[in-house]
Amino acid sequence: MSCIVRRLSGLALAAAMLSACSHVPVSTMWALRNFDAASVDPAVLRAAVRLPETFEPQKGGVTLKIGWWRDGEAKSKHEMIFALKETTAPEDVAPLAGETRPGTRIHAYRVDPADYAAIRARQKEFLEEKARDPGKTHGSFGVGADACRRGDFPEGPLLTTTYLRTQSSGPYLTVLKNLDMREAATKEKPLDALVPPCEKFADRAESATGIAR
After folding, report:
1. pTM attached to this predicted model
2. What is the pLDDT of residue 201?
3. Would you state the pLDDT for residue 107?
4. Of 159, 198, 140, 163, which is closest to residue 8 (Cα–Cα)?
């Protein structure tokens, strides 16, 4: 997310979160001040999201997005999107134990090893472009999550928090803290569209399967 550091586009739940810079802790901004998405090892990268327990991340819906562009050419951004894989490995989940809250669940993710080569190739491409014209090439690096809900929305705030870990032995950094999905909803993107019933996703998946056959 550009409000954290120029080369980090952020971790988000639904598109509405991408403008929620006020929810980024100052400690995270400071910790990521020198973070460079072009050199981070995709094998150690981890992401996590804390959701209300009635929310469910969609399979294949948590994604890593890498892009780069030159000054004045943002509309021609080079971009790749990779689906992240949920992880339950103790070394990935244990550091999040202190982040649990009543009525919520935390989901941790990692990059699919099958995507390491493609990600590293994109990082190399960005660095080569930057070397040719320093200061005029910019990169973005972000994680997004599509979620649905099981049943009706619970009463009260619908708080979501997202995390990023860039070092294997480092802590998870809180990227967006306690963003209320009710406040993130807009006239163009109402709450029911931001977090639709899970049945809609199931119907969509069945339709897609039928078309593929």
Report:
1. 0.75
2. 57
3. 94
4. 140
The Cα 5–Cα 176 span in angstroms is: 14
In this structure, which amino acid lies at residue 185? Answer: A
* Listed residue (208, 159, 212, 210) closest to 59, CA to CA: 208
pLDDT at 105: 93
pLDDT of residue 206: 47
Average pLDDT of span 116-134: 83
Q: What is the DSSP string of the chain?
A: -TTTBTTB-EEEESGGGGG-GGGS-HHHHHHTTT--TTT--TTT-EEEEEEETTEEEEEEEEEEEEEEEETT-GGG-EEEEEEEEEE--HHHHGGGGGG--TTEEEEEEEE-GGGHHHHHHHHHHHHHHHHHSTTSEEEEEEEEEEEEESSSPPSS--EEEEEEE-STTSPPEEEEEEEEHHHH--SSS-HHHHS-BHHHHHHHHHHHHHHH-
Measure CA 175 to chain center: 9
- 205 CB-near residues (< 8 Å, 6+ apart): none
- Report the half-sphere exposure of 38 (CA within 13 A, side-chain side): 17
Residue positions counted in the chain: 213
Could you report the per-residue pLDDT of 70-110, keeping only the tens digit for each?
Answer: 777 767 777 778 889 999 999 999 999 999 999 999 999 99
pLDDT at residue 204 greater than cutoff 90? no
Contact of 41 with 119, CB cutoff 8 Å: no
